[in-house]
Structures are given as C-alpha cells and as structure tokens.
Amino acid sequence: MKGLFKSKPRTPxxxxxxxxxxxxxxxxxxxxxxxxxxxxMAELSKNIRELKQILYGNSESEPVSEACxxxxxxxxxxNTLRLLITCVPKLNLEARKDATQVVANLQRQQVHSxxxxxxxxxxxxxxxxxxxxxxxxxxxxxxxxxxxxxxIRHQTVxxxxxxxxxxxxxxxxxxxxxxxxAADAAATFKELLTRHKSTVAEFLSKNYEWxxxxxxxxxxxxxxxxxxxxxxxxxxxxxxxxxxxxxMTRYVSSRDNLRILxxxxxxxxxxxxxxxxxxxxxxxxxxxxxxxIVGILITNRSKLxxxxxxxxxxxxxxxxxxxxxxxxxxxxxxxPRDRP
Amino acid sequence: MAHxxxxxxxxxxxxxxxxxxxxxxxxIGVGVSAIVYKAACVPxxxxxxxxxxxxxxxxxxxxxxxxxxxxxxSLLSHPNILNAHCSFxxxxxxxxxxxxxxxxxxxxxxxxxxxxxxxxxCIAVVLKETLNALSYLHKQGHLHRDIKSxxxxxxxxxxxxxxxxxxxxSIYEPNTGQGGWASSSSSSASRMMLTDVAGTPYWMAPEVIxxxxxxxxxxxxxxxxxxxxxxxxxxxxxxHLPPSKSLLMKxxxxxRLSDYEKSHNQKDKKFSKAFKDMVGSCLDHDPSKRPxxxxxxxxxxxxxxxxxDFLVKNVLSGLPTVEDRFRETRIVNKNGSVDxxxxxxxxxxxxxxxxxxxxxxxxxxxxxxxxxxxxxxxESREKQSESDNSDDNVVKQVRFGGETIIQDQKSDxxxxxxxxxxxxxxxxxxxxEAGNIEIIESESNVGGGGDFDRETVVGGLVILRRSLDExxxxxxxxxxxxxxxxxxxxxxxxxxxxxxxxxxxxxxxNFELEMELEFLKLQISGAYNSTDN
Lengths: 340, 533
What we know:
A: 340 residues; mainly alpha; Leucine-rich Repeat Variant; two-stranded antiparallel ribbon; 20 helices; 2 strands; B: 533 residues; alpha+beta; Phosphorylase Kinase, domain 1; Transferase(Phosphotransferase), domain 1; 5-stranded antiparallel sheet; 3-stranded antiparallel sheet; globular; ARM-like (chain A); protein serine/threonine kinase activator activity (chain A); Mo25 (chain A); ARM-type_fold (chain A)
C-alpha cells in the first residue's frame, strides 16, 4: 500500500520534527558507523534547506505565512534552536549557511502577533554565550555572528549581552587580524550600541568609566586604521543620539577625550578627520565648557582655525558648512576665564 | 550534495594574515581605489596569489558594503567561483588574497588576441562554466549584478571562475541597520527585489537601468546574454564600433545616417541556431520569461560542450601573460587618449540650458544581426518637432540611472553636460542637431540617490565620454558641410575659426577628463579582473 502513495508532502511541522530527531541523533556520541552517520548528516542538511525554503520561499513560490507560523511554533515548542545552534560546527558549509538563515528568519516570525523566538531566548539566554564565543573560532565566527546580530534585535536579549562580561571581549574581537571576522564583530558591536536607545543609554550611564576608558585606549587610539575609523564613526553616532545626551555631556567635559579627538582631527585620513569633526564640534558647542577645555581650545586656537579653513567635504554639504562656521565662531570668541 | 560534502572535507587552508608574508611580484591591475598585484605567499612555498589592495580611505563604497562583499566571497564555495583565501587590513588598505588566475579575464584575452570574438565551441565552454557559478549563486539567493567577460577568469588549466562580488547582493540578507525588523511579517517579495543601481551599463538589463521597478535574479540572466554577445563579437553590443564611438553614436546613426558605418553590424561570422536561441531567451524584455540559470544549463547549446582542455589549446596557447597584457593596455590607453584629441564641442550657457534626457525605452534583440537594437519611446516624435523650433540650447544626454552619475560627479557636472551639448556650436547648427535627434522630457524618477556604485559611475562616465566623441564627430561633419558651401564661405570661415578656438579650450578641459576616464575604463576592464588573473 505504501508504495502506491509516493511520499506524501510533508507538513512544516513534519520537517521540524524530523530535523529535531536528526539533530538529537548527531548530538549523540559517535558510536554509530561512519557511513550511517554521513547519511544522517546529509539528511539533516536536506531538512535544514527545506526549512529555509518554507521560510523564504524559492524562485517559484513566495513563503506562505501560515506554513511559517506552524514551523515557528513547532520549532520553539521544544529545544530545536539549542540543538541547531550547537550542531552548526558539525555541518558542512552550505548547511551552516542555511542554518544561519533559518535562525535569522525565525527571529522575525510572529505567531499570534508575538515574537516567540524572543520568549524562547529569554528562557535560554545562555545560548547567547555560545553565539558570542563564536568570534573566537575562525570557522564559526561568521555564522554565529550573523545569528547573534539577529538575536540582539530583541531588546531583552541585547540588554543581556550588553550587561554581560562579553561586552569587554568585543574590544578585542573588533581588532582580530582576519578582516571578515573583525568587521562582523564591529557590526554586532555597533548594533548593540545603537539599536535599543533606552537600553543603550542606561548601559552607558552605568558603565561609563570602564567603557569609555576602553573605547578611547583600545579603539580610538588603536594603531589599526580601520578600527579608528569605525570607532570614531560609532562614537559620533552614539554621542549625537538624543537619548544619550547625559553621556554626551559627560564625554565632552573631559580634557583627555578632547586631546584624543584633536589628535584624530590631525589624521591624514579624510574620513577619520571628518568623523572626528562631528564629535569635536560637540566639545566646542558645549555651553558649559570646563575651564581646562577652554584652555586647551585657546592654546590651540590658531592651529584649529587654520585647520578648519581648509576643511572641506568632497561634496558640498550645507549642514557641514554650517556646523563648521559655528565651531569656528565659537572658538574664535573664546576668552580665557579667570581661574577661581 | 556530493559536491558539497567534498568541499567540506577539504579543510580550508589558512593563509597568513600579515602583509610581510607576501612578496609582491608584479602589478596586474589598477583602478581608482584598488591595485591588484601578483604576489608570492612566502610561508606557503611561495604559492602565487593575486592580492587586491583596496584603499579604504579613497574607496567610494562604504565599509559596510565592503564587509558584505568580503563576507559573501568567503562564504561561497564552488569550483567556478573565485574565492578569497583571506583578507586583512594593512594601514588603510584592505588586502584581499585570492588565487592567481594566470589566464586573466576573458575580456583581456579577447582584447589582446581575439578582437572579433571567440569561436562558438570556446564560448560554449566559458558560458557553461559561468552558468554553473551563476546557478550556484542564485540558489544561494545571491545576485552577482555584474556579469561580464571582464569578470570571468581563466586559469592555466582552462578552468573558469566567476569573480568580482563588488556589487553583489543577497536577497536573504536584510538591509543592515534599517527596515527589516518592522516589516518582519511582510512577504519576501520586497526582499527578492533590489532597487539600487549597480553594474556596468552595457551589460545592464533594462529593468536595472529603469531601476524604479526593481529587479531580481533575472537581471543576471540578461547580463549573461550580453556577455554571450560580447564573447561572440569581441565587444558588448552597442560598443561594437571602434573603441570610442559609441552607444549614442550608434543610436543616432541608426536614426539619421543609417547607411553610415554599418559595416560592423554585418559580420561575416555565422552563429548557430542554438546559440542565437539561447542568447535570445536571455534577452527577453520580460524578466519572468528569461530562463533561470539552471534551466539554461539544459539548453541544447550546451550539449556536447567541450572541456577545459579545449580552452587551453584554443584560447590559452600563445597568449601573452597577464602582466604583459596589463602593461600593453596601459600603453594603448595612454596613446589612445592622445589620439582622441580632435575637435570638441564648445560650451553652452548652462544657466539657460534646458536639460533633457533621451531615454531608451528598451532593446530589441535582432536575431538575424545577432545584435541589440535600441527602442525609443514613441511619444518622442511629438517632442521632436517642438524641439526643432525652440530649443537651441538643449543638453542631450543618455543616462543610465543617470542621476547617480551626475550627482556623484557634481564638480564635473556642468562640463559634462555641456560637452554633451551641440548647443552653442552656433544656433544654426544646433537646429540641425535638434531636428535629427529625438528628445523627450526627462522623467527623473530614478530613486535612491544616496548610494553610488563605482562601477555605475565609471560606466556612466564612459558613456558620457562617448557622447563627447559623437558630438565632436558631428561638429566635424558640420564643419565639413559648411566648408563645402561657397556663398557663405567667408562667414563660415570665421565661424569655423571661432569654433576652433572654442574647441581648443574644450579640448584642454577634456583632456584631463579623458585621462581620468581612460583610467577609470582601465579599471572596468582591468582592476579586479585582470587582477585575479
């Protein structure tokens, strides 16, 4: 009888279940024969690809939201995400990429207008530890990194990572010699520090001391061009964000910070100079400049004015010119204050 | 699947991540913000590699897109795709270390040794291997977006690899930073369509040029069809007239002087029915009617396809080395730009100039001529008569997603558009011009503005440059024509004298421009591709 009905199309739930079984199988100690194991791995890869196709559709068909919802629900009903994440190192390259895309997509799937992936991750927050540690492994970094960036789109998950000990590690990940991995880590770092405004503001206020000490010494004063360039850009994004105004006020009141910024202004790289200007202008525009800041600005006044005189963007930009004019005016008008 | 397993078991060899481990042997390609070297990796038995050194400080692309390109490359694994061994930064340069493809790009091979194109059996091998790569890419959800012979590389053993993911995009990767999350439940349709302009104009599909409609995987298939024509003719369609005559030239010739310089259309080459049919299907106006890469692989044209040995014997033997070819093109290009200086168009007053654009509404694939014919919007006929009478100072440009080109080159903007204009050549001449060229109002609805692609810009510049050439030719014609009239001779001599003065000025201005364009052109044809050689 069975032969008459060629394989009945499997439902999304079937695919998830079978994937889970195969994941459990491969997770076990390798006591089985090598050939059988390979067969199972191939079958697993096929299932993961099928999950991807249900979620993303393919060249012939669009994804069906009902199928996606069923898949998502079944996926998070049990521990499939943990099994899948821990199994990634055992998969081949194609299956790893498929798995990454599946995990990424699941973070966005809503079931009854709830992001159930978020609820799952909150209960299994240690999975984030695995994902972050991916940056220490050349083979895993890009896959885990991509999954990580999707997961921290959930505010609670991002908060966990921000407040964990992992945050310190990012200062090193960003400077790894392998460009792909370093750049991926930098993208994640940026996402952590810009996506969820209130969480970021809270994190920066609480961790101001160590965070900016690290940020200055490891990133802004790095010997690595790309690190400096990304760091100064990100610093601008952070400080210019309205929600971080308290942090900004604090940052621009420090003469050490000013010194670092003024050094960046002198860089030969135009990109770095310009990004540095966007932070420097905050020091100049601060209406409550501490005396030592005023002192530094006055001491270097002529040099600064000369620098800004030739300071142009490749493309004309009114906003930039206006900012520049303001900074120049501000610096030109400075008068030494009597020290108390 | 078997192939995938195999790839996986091959443990990736880690190349050293510091520049001291590499010894630069020769320069094999150069572009605006990148230089490509042939180098030896000393700790690995001096394995020869290609190193693309991208100046990140100069590069137009932002770091995010460079990161995506690099990541895409390192996560692809297919015998017909050029992978990076590794990449790392050296001061403000990003070094991308890749296998050295000793045969170089098909474009450089054709231009050095097969000016009239390759033979059909050779084309079949090249295209089939390219299709394998494309099929893999598409299955992965990636668009290449810049398929052309300059990005198809060949190794000494005849193996073919597709290179340059500088403009590739993934339909799976959400646009970083924005949007994606909010539209989480929306269908993938939006993700399947990309709307920014990328690629090199000659190879671009119509829906890419008119990018407001967005485009998908099928745009690559169009470019693949153009590449087939390129391999067959030695040049992409509409650039098949000698180097600096052009797209615009051909279009105007067809409309006005259809008997002029047509010889290049009629090649003595004959192509098989299967080949014509295959190319024709790729060049269907309707993207949905173009076959997928996978389907194309089954086309009869690829049946009984020869192997890579065939290419070694018929293409590679006796070929100058990549290094030599690179040096050669440099010299040729230098000379070329000097040769080019003849008459140029004078300036017109840009303040009073009405900028109009002539757009090509589509292409017809002419199977007999094995060529593409441009199609113009029909309403242009009415406009034509208007412009006949009124617009003396009309700036005409052919733009491919042109806004991006112009904005990006803001500083040069006026000089470009002016040189594209026959306007102030004298009013009578301008009228003659306007009568012969179809003009429609610009509908500058190409969106996006903000993000510029280097390739697009370069391509646009090339077209503008060719437009210059054409205008120069027209002025030449006119001078000749006026010179031929006896009655108004004195007057005309004066006029010509004046024109010459103006042209002299223009020429000076344009010389620099042309130098730069040559440089950029080199990059199109060369940079990465000849690099990877």
